[in-house]
Amino acid sequence: MKFECPYGWKYEGKIGDHLTFESATVHICDGICDSCDLCGIERCEFYDTSREATRRFLRAQAQEHTLEHLLAPIN
Question: What is the chain's alpha carbon radius of gyration, rounded to the nearest angstrom?
Fold first, then answer.
């Protein structure tokens, strides 16, 4: 699931010297944010940088990309 960071974290990227973009979109899988190691906002409910959290996140992310998940009805 992707949505805007509830704590205001923003990613800034640059392309060349003149083009800069910002994104506050984060990807949450199994209750873990994909950007928690970058933002460092520990009060966030999706913040978890443990090894087990990384395993859970990667497993959930892999499940999201299966055909079974993509064809499942939205609740």
Answer: 15
